Amino acid sequence: MVKTAFVFPGQGSQYVGMGRELFERHRARVEPFYRRAREALGFDLQEVIFSGPEEKLKLTEFAQPAILLDSVIKFELLGRTPDYAAGHSLGEYSALVCAGVFSVEDGLRLVHLRGRFMQEAVPVGQGSMVAILKLDYERVQEICAQTGAEIANYNAPDQIVISGRRDAVLKAKELAEAMRGKGIELAVSAPFHSSLMKPAEERLKPEIERVRFVAPRFPVLSTVSGEPETDPQRLQELLTRQITAQVRWTEYVLRLKSLGVTKCIEVGPGDVLTKLMKRIDRELEALSFAQVMA
């Protein structure tokens, strides 16, 4: 029997107009989600998603609830239950909502605050993130040890994102390029998944603790533990430590495979995770939402 995992994308996958076609085709099923978002957040998230402008949608405090909402709607339209779920950073919140751990409203409020707290943790311009290509994890670890940069995302064997103070990250980029790697500075507004995010993590912790968590309908891989979790108290505690945790996406995908998963479906905007999974393990069948619904 085929085991399937749903995987949920993180920030950066958003784009103006995402979900509009689904709204027009499935209005009766989709419209209530946008109404619930408006009531939960106190502003019209649908307007931001459908009309932008792009500069506003890219802001962390809007991008995060926008992606979560898009993912939840697509999960609803798929109409099936996976054996497991995993999310890339923000995507863990989408996975938890879809697994019924907490409500859509609680999820939207949490990630809206998460986005704002992450942006406010470090003054603009002081932090940075760089994608390092063509070097393995151990090499990048060595570079980080020399510079004070930190590994934020282990996205694929040949794509590792580093984060931290801008001077340290740019020095690490120089060293990577000297080793014949390639460094690409990312267009992000803060050094996500680094120790500089500790103030955001501490501010979000009481907000997470105020939300009631219940047992998931299917196991969700935790960003922090890298394991499928089902205990609501443990899921809650792990989530309070997620903002500064390294996103070990390559390891999560291989863990899903070890659990017997042979098919992964990306539930959310775009196909970033679908492409990454094909670079991690070609034996896994990786499909985007658009491919599944075609």
UniProtKB/TrEMBL annotation:
The entry's keywords: Acyltransferase, Transferase
Pfam family, one: Acyl_transf_1
UniProt cross-references to SUPFAM superfamilies, sorted A to Z: FabD/lysophospholipase-like, Probable ACP-binding domain of malonyl-CoA ACP transacylase
Highest taxon in the source lineage: Bacteria
GO MF term (any one): [acyl-carrier-protein] S-malonyltransferase activity
GO cellular component assignments: cytosol
Coiled-coil ranges (or none): none
InterPro entries to which the protein is assigned, alphabetical: Ac_transferase_dom_sf, Acyl_transferase_dom, Acyl_Trfase/lysoPLipase, Mal-CoA-ACP_Trans/PKS_FabD, Malonyl_CoA-ACP_transAc, Malonyl_CoA-ACP_transAc_FabD, Malonyl_transacylase_ACP-bd
Family from the record: Belongs to the fabD family.
PANTHER family in UniProt: MALONYL-COA-ACYL CARRIER PROTEIN TRANSACYLASE, MITOCHONDRIAL (PTHR42681:SF1)
Record's protein name: Malonyl CoA-acyl carrier protein transacylase
